[in-house]
Design a protein that fits this description.
By secondary structure, the protein is an alpha/beta fold. The chain has helices spanning 9-19, 24-27, 31-62, 68-80, 118-129, 146-149, 155-163, 169-176, 188-207, 238-249, 266-271, 324-342, 368-378, 396-410, 426-439, 496-516, 549-560, 577-580, 586-593, 600-607, 619-638; strands spanning 94-97, 137-138, 213-216, 255-259, 278-285, 312-317, 346-351, 386-390, 524-529, 568-569, 642-647. The chain has two domains: 94-448 and 465-517, Arginase, Chain A, CATH 3.40.800.20; 527-639, no CATH class. Helix content is 41%, strand content 8%. The strands form two sheets. An eight-stranded parallel beta sheet has the order 2-1-3-8-7-4-5-6, with helices on both faces. The chain has a three-stranded parallel beta sheet with strand order 10-9-11, covered by helices on one side. Helix 9 crosses helix 10 (238-249), helix 12 (324-342) runs parallel beside helix 13 (368-378) and helix 13 (368-378) runs parallel beside helix 14 (396-410). It starts with 8 loop residues before the first helix and ends with a strand. It is found in: Nucleus.
């Protein structure tokens, strides 16, 4: 629509003054002529503006592609799209915490106690066998301070634990009986301080960008240790203290804690239950409350309180025997959508491996390779700042392999191939739907789920979604230990001998999984192919979007950002006619081959037969080069020399 000329008020005043001196004949000049004059001038101004706009457009089109004007245009456009063109930071390494000092924490009166020194020595040994340790940056052992402990624990608890270093065996037994599934010896306090301090040191190194991510192979574990009492093999809550330190003192705004230990980390949940800065996510065996720690608050409907409502996520598993497909379904359907919306600055993993195949504690069937995949998924968040901290895991063979594959993922090795995954069990599907049901009001990522409303007469096909917890036949534990005394020896649901035989039963299955898991490490992560000759394919008029500079500028940007030196160049080549005919007909290939002999007019005429295509005499040769180069990259990746590809 044409614009009317802008009104010149000063000019109008001047014309009014002049009108007083005009003759009667001039005054009788028709109003129509005045309007026509105004319209004419308006049309001239509009036409002039159009010419200016057209001229500017033509200048852009006709300008050389490497001109400063075009460069500025694209930079401004990319900036408006919030695309960063900065050179990436130097690639950092993976930190590793391990110290034999922590082997000194052991149960002096029960040799069958599952939380034993081999839980860290054997995983470290397996990581060494796979040459992973030598690829890590070793983080020096640090002792936690009393101030660190007091971030999440009472002074009274700290003093009680400290006093164990001076107790004799009988006193240690009496002390341990006051807590559920806990033992201490004279070295436990020191080991707990080392586990805590080294975990915090690893986290701080990640936040200071001295390392990208890290693994803490430490003990005693921590996620059951509450504010004022020890519990479940745990002394100090290492991960919870680290998270508190991060948000209170290190300027971290949001922390995601992922707890995949088979037991619910009830203490960590309680410590951040009303804190929206920390999103706690736990996937754990529950069986409607019949599994330890037998707490009502471990169910899916406990989602936080006050400002923290919606920031506590429990994924209760109500059946045993859950496999990779069930855990991966939880990750894809619940955790990852939440995590990307939460957008954490740091991820802490309470990595318990008692849900791994063969562990009598969990009676789950998660493969070691699956832990590598779960770790890999998390590394796409928080700019890769992932700190994995050992919690449980009591089948030494599966524990060791699972820890090793977690470390391989942190080192950015390819995740081992998993077999095809079927749909999750009905039990897990029902749990996922229940979680989405209670979290929908707090997270937009769940708004697309078409769940039934409360006032609908219809029912969900998954029975668990139609019920509200708790079950009436379940007896829950009280929150505290009160004055209850606990046994000195740890008891599984089965006898010790039966547990031993059960583990032996799974040994050959675990051995087979290990044998079938490809742990190759290609020398390069990415390969790249580029050939300047492909620029010859171009339109006969300037301004076409499929321009030769598309590939040149991409390649130049790789060089500028230092990415090319981190890749391996793959040789370009021409595809053969037989390769082309795997997809295309002989007639079509011959038609393309004849392009080199055609005139510009004939090429244009032929191009009209296709959708969004231009052709030139060099098109066939360039297409052969593009196809052959891609096939070279595919061959290189499939033969295991590289991990991923980039084609320009």
């Amino acid at each position: 629509m044409a614009e009317l000329p802008a009104t010149n008020f000063d000019g109008d005043k001047e014309r009014n003054l002049k009108d007083e001196h005009l003759s009667e004949e001039e005054k009788r000049k028709s109003h129509k002529e005045v309007l026509e004059e105004i319209k004419r001038k308006g049309r001239e101004e509009v036409a002039q503006k159009r010419e200016e706009i057209k001229s500017k457009r033509e200048e852009k089109v006709m300008a050389e592609n490497d001109s400063p004007d075009e460069e500025d245009y694209y930079v401004q456009t990319l900036s408006a799209m919030s695309i960063s063109l900065q050179k990436p930071e130097k690639v950092l390494g993976t930190g590793l915490v391990y110290d034999e000092l922590m082997l000194k924490h052991k149960n002096d009166w029960d040799p069958n106690f599952p939380e034993k020194p081999e839980r860290i020595s054997e995983p470290f040994k397996r990581c060494s066998e796979l040459h992973l340790v030598e690829r890590c940056i070793r983080i020096e052992t640090q002792y936690g301070t009393e101030d660190m402990v007091l971030l999440q624990h009472t002074r009274e608890l700290l003093e009680k634990v400290k006093s164990t270093s001076q107790m004799n065996r009988q006193q240690l037994q009496e002390f341990s009986q006051h807590y559920d599934s806990v033992y201490c010896n004279q070295s436990s306090y020191e080991c707990a301080l080392v586990a805590l301090g080294s975990t915090i040191e690893l986290m701080e190194q990640i936040l200071k960008k001295k390392i990208t991510n890290g693994l803490a192979i430490t003990r005693p574990p921590g996620h059951h240790s509450m504010n004022d009492e020890l519990c479940g093999f745990c002394i100090f809550n290492n991960v919870a203290i680290a998270a508190k330190h991060a948000v209170d003192s290190l300027g971290v705004k949001k922390v995601l804690i992922v707890d995949w230990d088979v037991h619910h980390g009830q203490a960590t949940q309680k410590m951040f239950y009303n804190d929206p800065r920390v999103l706690y996510f736990s996937i754990h065996r529950y069986e409607y409350g019949n599994y330890w720690p037998n707490l009502r608050e471990s169910d899916y409907d406990f989602i936080g309180e006050d400002k923290g409502k919606g920031f506590n996520i429990n994924v209760p598993l109500n059946q045993t025997g859950m496999t990779d497909k069930d855990y991966l379904a939880v990750f894809h359907q619940v955790l990852l959508p939440l995590a990307y919306e939460f957008c954490p600055d740091l991820i802490l993993v309470s990595a318990g491996y008692d849900c791994a195949i063969g562990c009598p504690e969990g009676e789950m069937m998660v493969s070691p390779a699956c832990f590598g995949h779960m770790t890999h998924y998390l590394m796409g968040l928080a700019d890769g700042r992932v700190c994995v901290c050992l919690e449980g895991g009591y089948c030494i063979k599966s524990l060791s392999e699972s820890v090793a594959l977690t470390l391989k993922a942190l080192l950015r090795d390819p995740s081992p191939l998993l077999p095809p995954q079927n749909e999750p069990s009905d039990s897990v599907a029902g749990t996922i739907l229940n979680i989405i049901k209670v979290l929908r009001p707090y997270w937009s990522c769940f708004h697309y789920q078409d769940l039934l409303e409360d006032d609908t007469e219809e029912f969900c096909s998954f029975e668990e979604v139609n019920k509200l917890p708790p079950r009436l036949d379940v007896k829950f534990n009280n929150e505290g230990n009160d004055s209850k005394m606990f046994p000195l020896t740890y008891t599984y649901d089965k006898e010790v001998q039966e547990v031993y035989l059960l583990q032996k039963k799974f040994d050959p299955i675990i051995d087979q999984l290990i044998a079938e898991t490809a742990l190759l490490r290609p020398p390069y992560r990415t390969c790249i192919v580029y050939d300047d000759d492909m620029r010859a394919h171009k339109a006969d008029s300037r301004g076409h979007p499929e321009d030769p500079d598309r590939i040149t500028r991409i390649f130049d940007k790789h060089v500028e950002l230092g990415l090319l030196e981190r890749c391996l160049r793959v040789q370009s080549r021409h595809a053969t006619e037989s390769e082309l005919q795997l997809i295309h007909s002989s007639k079509y290939v011959e038609e393309m081959k004849e392009l080199a002999e055609k005139t510009v007019f004939d090429l244009r005429k032929l191009a009209w037969n296709y959708n969004s295509i231009y052709l030139c005499q060099e098109t066939y040769n360039c297409a052969l080069l593009a196809t052959g180069s891609l096939l070279n990259v595919v061959h290189t990746v499939l033969t295991g020399q590289y991990v991923s590809l980039k084609v320009n």
